[in-house]
């Protein structure tokens, strides 16, 4: 920590208040940095060092230009690690720094206690540095371009993980066994006298046993046995990779799993941090002279603009509404059944459970469940939420509905799987030609075909055999296939597609 | 101290320019960053490189918003509010040139040899055992590593794998040495006869600005001269060059004669890199005069210039014959570049044609 005496005093005070309020966090280390250092760290995703890759350079270029021309500015940066590292920009005023510190303690508490972060590596700073060393060494040995080319291919696939598997699966990579182990064994018969055999070993039972055994046998032959969300893991296990390539791919996968919970809890995390910076500042830390600056900054953080949703705003308002509802006991059957508007307005059971409830919520939920559980019509009305749609005639967006069911549905659409298409490996030996077949689980939105084609090309380079993905385009099942860098698209026979799906289950 | 990120940034810039890794070329995107400064929207051009992912298409035209949504009136009405103005950020000239160079993949110009010793400049001609990674001397490092491995007995000629360690590294170090400076002159010539309208001049002005911008970034000192001509030619200053509107006939040879004279008297090729540019609508007075032009180019201008560029602006009146004549008469001469500028969109390809050769 390199804080000035002023800042250190403010920090100690804020930390004391945060603990007072019941926040529980890892030790938090603040670093005071100038804008270029902050942009550098931000480009590295919050880490002091990462593996060498042009993507970080691009991000830095972007941040630096944005800062230089006064378009964007980073206020706060904190990483999930034990200890938590947070960065303060030197040029910010003292009020801003206080607000940021309070905000950061909110994030740290969230990192430590939210269940979706439970499996993340809390020594990620060290691990990232190790990844850097590994890749630098590989680049020295195998050539920068070769390693980077492979790394780019892996990064193009880094959204193909299973964010709901709560823990990174660390089972060792097993050598492939030969799946062909002879015909399925016939079911064992119990010993019985011949005249009793019909009763002791009923034929229909034997038939059922045989069927199950055949099915098990077939499933063991198929690769993967059931559709697998974690495509990267599948590639690690089964793609013909060199040792160093395996190392690169597993490192990319590990980082993807580390970052996944942050995408899953954006609204909750920012809402929680905003809730606490607001609470700590307004109730404890703020001096009279700082009020206007604080209000200005706070309002800027929570500002909404038409057609865009601010996760800070939605998050903090949801927490506040939950706190209010549980304080007044506005939940459960009694509240749901209450029909009279006047009574609903007066409704107050004086339970005072609000604080306990939001602490519980912030431990157990992710954005999807958070919004699904707590966004109701009252909240929608109070927050003036709406669904907009482009009017095909005028080409301009219009408010389509203010119904909370539609709002929620639309929101959840964007939040599930962090807004990414759900893609699984269904067959590692498609057509019995060693081709890799992926499937996009279609839920109403089409995938971008141009990007899909390009991604397939990169995937083919890893798999070293043709690859394909089935999806839906204009309502019809479509198979996009890539062989030797050539992408082709063909329509799937509707029956075939369903057959295969049933087959895969 | 050099930042760690600078390495990544340099790598990124090289990739965008397409110098290394041709396979990434198709992912280069030219985006821009939009922001708000005061009342105006500001846009900054940003080159980007996006790896493909499986992702949703952009056909989604709906979403969730918060606040007082403004329902649009059903009937189409003429808007009475001013539109939002896009303002380009003021980018320094040197950065503009770099952007242009990246956009058009212009090669850096190798100046013709001049030995005027002017400015001392740092040159990397020494060797040290310490230094920044960017100055690592790969050959020396490798040699040291090889030596070490042979001594240590770990080198296997059958599998010649050399891995340098820290102690093997050698770095270049700088020493100050006077370096040669090069100077250049651009001679712009423009047809201002009756057929060249305001629109055509606008095109020439835009093109001349970008050319000037690029050459300026390539030479430490850049001079410019302007010549206008109709039936007669004269040298003018910049403001006049772009705003003068004359009428009358067109005799291109007059301009070329003046240009040749300038080069003879003021910009001898031994000291100067000379870049004559000529813009016209391609209508010359007579075939005889065109012959005279070709002769002047062959005898006087081309041998003494780095490159002669002729840009033909399309106009309603011009026949466009002159470009054909030039191309025909001087076919295969690399010192002559001609290009046609149809409209504003034609400017960039034309600049690329003029400056793309790195002469």
Oligomeric description of these chains? heterodimer
Instruction: Return the CATH topology of the largest domain in chain B.
Output: Rossmann fold
Mean pLDDT score of chain B: 75
The two chains with the largest interface, and their residue counts, are: A-B, 76 and 54 residues
| Strand order of the biggest β-sheet of chain A | 6-7-8-9-10
What's the average pLDDT of chain A? Answer: 88
Strand content of chain A: 5-15%
Description:
Chain A is of the alpha+beta class and 505 residues long. Chain A has 21 helices and ten strands. Chain A is globular. Chain B has 359 residues and is of the alpha/beta class. Chain B has helices spanning 4-17, 93-104, 138-152, 198-218, 238-243, 252-265, 287-304, 321-329, 347-355, and strands spanning 28-37, 40-49, 62-66, 86-88, 117-128, 171-180, 183-191, 221-229, 233-236, 272-280, 308-313, 336-341. In chain B, the strands form three sheets. Chain B has a six-stranded mixed β-sheet, sandwiched between helices. Residues 71-90 of chain B have low confidence and may be disordered. Chains A and B meet through α2, α3, α6, β4 and β5 of A and α1, β1, β2 and β3 of B. β4 (385-390) of chain A pairs antiparallel with β3 of chain B, so a sheet runs across the interface.
Question: What are its keywords?
Answer:
heterodimer; A: about 500 residues; alpha+beta; 5-stranded mixed beta sheet; 3-stranded mixed beta sheet; 21 helices; globular; disordered C terminus; B: about 350 residues; alpha/beta; Rossmann fold; 6-stranded mixed beta sheet; 9 helices; about 25% strand; extended
Explain briefly what this protein structure is.
Chain A has 505 residues and is of the alpha+beta class. Chain A has 21 helices and 10 strands.
């Amino acid at each position: 920590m390199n804080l000035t005496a002023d800042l250190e005093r403010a920090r100690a005070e804020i930390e004391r208040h945060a603990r007072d309020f019941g926040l529980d966090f890892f030790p938090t280390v603040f670093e005071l940095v100038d804008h270029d250092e902050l942009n550098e760290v931000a480009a590295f995703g919050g880490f002091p060092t990462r593996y060498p890759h042009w993507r970080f350079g691009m991000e830095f270029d972007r941040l630096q230009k944005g800062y230089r021309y006064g378009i964007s500015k980073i206020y706060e940066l904190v990483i999930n690690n034990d200890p938590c590292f947070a960065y303060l920009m030197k040029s910010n005023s003292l009020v801003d720094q206080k607000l940021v510190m309070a905000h950061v303690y909110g994030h740290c508490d969230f990192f430590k206690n939210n269940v979706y972060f439970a499996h993340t590596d809390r020594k990620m700073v060290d691990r990232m540095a190790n990844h850097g060393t590994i890749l630098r060494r590989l680049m020295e040995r195998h050539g920068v371009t070769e390693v980077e080319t492979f790394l780019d291919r892996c990064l193009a696939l880094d959204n193909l993980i299973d964010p709901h598997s709560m823990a990174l699966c660390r089972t060792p990579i097993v050598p492939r066994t030969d799946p062909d182990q002879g015909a399925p064994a016939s079911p064992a018969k119990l010993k019985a006298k011949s005249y009793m055999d019909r009763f002791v070993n009923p034929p229909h039972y034997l038939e059922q046993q045989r069927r199950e055994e055949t099915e098990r046998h077939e499933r063991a032959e198929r690769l993967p046995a059931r559709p697998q969300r974690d495509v990267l893991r599948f590639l690690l296990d089964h793609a013909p990779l060199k040792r160093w390539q395996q190392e690169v791919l597993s490192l990319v996968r590990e980082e993807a799993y580390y970052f996944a919970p942050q995408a899953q809890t954006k609204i909750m995390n920012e809402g929680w941090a905003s809730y606490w910076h607001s609470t700590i500042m307004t109730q404890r830390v703020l001096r009279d002279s700082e009020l206007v600056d604080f209000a200005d900054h706070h309002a800027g953080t929570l500002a909404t603009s038409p057609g865009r949703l601010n996760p800070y705003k939605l998050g903090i308002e949801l927490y506040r509404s939950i706190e209010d509802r549980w304080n007044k006991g506005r939940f459960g059957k009694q509240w749901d059944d209450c029909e009279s508007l006047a009574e609903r307005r007066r409704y107050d059971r004086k339970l005072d459970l609000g604080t306990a409830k939001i602490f519980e919520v912030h431990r157990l939920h992710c954005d999807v469940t958070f919004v699904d559980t707590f966004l109701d019509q009252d909240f929608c009305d109070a927050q003036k939420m709406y669904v907009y749609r482009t009017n095909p005639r005028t080409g301009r967006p219009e408010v389509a509905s203010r119904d909370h069911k539609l709002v929620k549905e639309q929101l959840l659409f964007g939040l599930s799987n962090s807004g990414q298409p759900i893609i699984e490996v269904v067959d590692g030996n498609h057509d019995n030609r060693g081709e890799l077949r992926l499937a996009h689980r279609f839920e109403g939105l089409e995938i971008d075909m141009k990007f899909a084609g390009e991604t397939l090309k990169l995937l083919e380079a890893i798999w070293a055999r043709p690859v394909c993905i089935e999806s839906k385009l204009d309502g019809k099942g479509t198979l996009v296939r890539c062989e030797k860098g050539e992408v082709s698209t063909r329509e799937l026979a509707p029956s075939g597609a369903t057959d295969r799906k049933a087959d895969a289950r | 101290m050099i930042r760690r990120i600078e390495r990544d940034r340099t790598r990124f810039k090289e990739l965008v320019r397409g110098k290394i890794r041709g396979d990434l070329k198709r992912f280069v995107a030219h985006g821009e960053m939009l922001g708000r400064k005061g009342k105006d929207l500001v846009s900054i051009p940003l080159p980007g490189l996006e790896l493909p992912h499986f992702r949703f298409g952009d056909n989604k035209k709906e979403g969730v918003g918060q606040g007082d949504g403004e329902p649009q009136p059903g009937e189409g009405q003429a808007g009475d509010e001013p539109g939002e103005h896009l303002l380009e950020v003021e980018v320094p000239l040197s950065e503009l040139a770099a952007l242009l160079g990246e956009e058009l993949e212009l090669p850096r110009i190798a100046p013709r040899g001049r030995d005027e010793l002017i400015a001392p400049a740092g040159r990397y001609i020494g060797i040290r055992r310490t230094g920044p990674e960017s100055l690592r001397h790969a050959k020396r490092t490798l040699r040291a590593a090889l030596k070490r491995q042979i001594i240590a007995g770990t080198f296997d000629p059958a599998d010649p794998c050399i891995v340098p360690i820290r102690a093997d590294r050698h770095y270049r170090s700088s020493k100050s040495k006077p370096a040669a400076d090069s100077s250049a002159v651009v001679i712009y010539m423009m047809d201002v006869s009756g057929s060249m309208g305001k629109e055509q001049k606008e095109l020439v002005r835009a093109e001349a600005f970008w050319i000037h911008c690029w050459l300026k970034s390539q030479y430490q000192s850049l001079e410019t001269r302007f010549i206008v001509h109709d039936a007669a030619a004269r040298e003018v200053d910049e403001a006049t060059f772009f705003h003068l509107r004359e009428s009358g006939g067109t005799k291109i040879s007059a301009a070329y004669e003046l240009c040749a004279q300038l080069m003879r008297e003021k910009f001898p090729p031994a000291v100067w890199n000379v870049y004559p540019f000529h813009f016209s609508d391609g209508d010359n007075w007579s075939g005889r005069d065109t012959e005279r032009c070709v002769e002047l180019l062959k005898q006087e201008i081309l041998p003494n210039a780095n490159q002669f560029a002729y840009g033909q602006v399309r106009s309603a009146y011009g026949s466009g014959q002159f470009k054909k004549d030039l191309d025909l008469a001087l076919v295969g001469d690399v010192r002559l570049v001609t290009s046609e500028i149809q409209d504003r969109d034609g400017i960039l390809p034309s600049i690329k044609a003029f400056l793309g050769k790195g002469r």
